[in-house]
Prior knowledge:
By secondary structure, the protein is an all-alpha fold. About 70% of the residues lie in helices and about 0% in strands. The protein contains 16 helices and no strands. Helix 2 (about 15-25) runs parallel beside helix 16 (about 255-280), helix 4 packs antiparallel against helix 7 (about 90-110) and helix 14 packs antiparallel against helix 15 (about 230-250). The N and C termini lie far apart (about 50 Å).
Amino acid sequence: MTFTLHDLKISRPGLWFPTIWIYLVPFNIKDHFWLEFNFWLGLFFVTFPLNYLVYGFNDFNDVYADKVNDRKGNFLFGAKSSEEQLKSIPTKIAIIMSPFIIWFSIISGWKMFALLLFMIVINWLYNFKPFRIKERPPFEIAIQIGYVFTAFFSIQLNGLNMLPWQTILYLSLFAFQAHIAGEIMDIEPDLNSGKKTTATIIGRRNTKLLMLLILLVEVCILSFWFQDYMLAGFLLVFSLWLTFDIFFIFKSKSYTIKQMKLFGLVMNISAILSMIWILYSGKLLDPVF
């Protein structure tokens, strides 16, 4: 079984930031966690291995939708794979995931094994029939709460304190928002392939309004529950941009491939800066409400 750069492309390095971001949230910079081997092993796991599981299952079941999706075929948004290339995906996922499952379960116990098993099962339910929740709007958005289990994985592996419920709620909204952004960009290829999503049903403008609503709720949570005015301010600026996008600039028009790639680059830069901030400030670990 040979792994190539195409497999790396399947894992979508340009979209690793949600799992990395959520993995880092439970850490307190005062604990010097970067000196621990488990931290780095866990950080590596939530990059290529975990995202290969998530997007490998996705691509395995979306051959035609990806074939007509012009934003695919790169390391930012993922690979365009033939049916022949995708035949080995389940086996490759098993090969990649098994050593991590065994090792993490040995060092962290049965709770870790159950957690990792849950992460596999939720991705199976999302992608495979008869469940295939990815095509059962609006549940394809709600199930994105599964991303929050990356934080639970981080806590279990590194022996950290459980996150406050307010932080878990914020991370859930973060996962919803990130998924909706992808649906907005994929409306045309999803419609052309007959794929049903919330965005294809309610339209681009209404989906942007839904994303704007989630962003504004996040701004309120960050401002009033965490008093994190830096992160709240960043999201408020993003909300203002999205408002102009909805009402004055793009409205219901689709983005060009160059524009989507630019947005993807901006998202990654923003994610890196906000990761540094959440680790430095620790505000998401200490709600005032």
